[in-house]
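Marked as duplicate of an earlier ticket. Keeping the data here for the record.
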Amino acid sequence: MRALNYLELESRLERSGIGTSTRHQRKALAGTSVDVVTSPWRGGTPVHGVASRAVGRGFFADFDIAHCNVIGPGSVAVARHAKRARIPLVLHAHVTSEDFAESFRGSTLAARPLRRYLRWFYSLADVVLCPSQYTKSVLESYPIDTPIRPISNGVDTESLEGFESLREEYRDRYDLDGMVAFTMGNVFERKGLTTFCRLAQATDFDFAWFGPYDTGPQASSTVRKWVENPPENVTFTGWVDDKRGAFAAGDVLCFPAKDENQGIAVLEAMACGKAVVLRDIPVFNEFYTHGEDCLMCETEAEFKRALELLARNPGLREQLGENARKTAAQHSLERLGDRLSETYRELV
């Protein structure tokens, strides 16, 4: 079977969760009998596709099933081609209007019209994949009538191997000491930016946010406020070339996100055996258990108490981390590959 696994604007999305999820899919499928192509255009680019069509060879490459990970015009073109050619179409719902809000400047205002577009776009699919039962329930509320199948984004444990060796280097680089509360990913208010910074103001721990941020015109005023004038004990590192350094330098993942479809950074921290403190929201309750493989909090006061407890009790940090490692093992790329190939074969 030849499957298209398409990530529109791939170079721009490399540092995003969507980019990470797509890499996971492709690596997982490499362990199956599915032959993966990553460009829908014959010759690899739209320009080559046009040239190919001009000589009668067709604009689109040959594939038995189309799987798109983004919602832009290139993906719409692939979806329409798939419908015309009767090729099974899988659309991956990494984007909802709920998780689009509180990201960029104006994103909250755009979330409502985005929902109407998503309802139309996702309804083109033969199957919609999404990272969680929570996301499935969100999509069903739009409503989307297409069958929706939750499949974990998975965690690439191989990409994290050897992270421990980078601890001293990354703690020295960012002047981190003691128990470090950290998070990873794009700096957005939706990710709990204000809570993260207020917790730093209320405690004496070092806090580090590993991930890219923007202070230009498209950045929200909240992001600019905290990044340009952070609390003294908060470090915004910007993009780090080796994500293993973040998990080496940090001790407790503090992840007060307001909305997530799954949260790959959480699974990666768990795979590294880190204690994790999460906001008590439905998607995390779906995968994790308070007091067993994480601590869940609703208020800033609860987050503060959880961090102070973990600082006083390194044994608890270790136990939560060991249990978290077992939880992450349930989200292996091998399982992801099996689920994806099974979905493809059912449709073909």
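See parent ticket for discussion. The CA atoms of residues 119 and 143 lie 7 Å apart.
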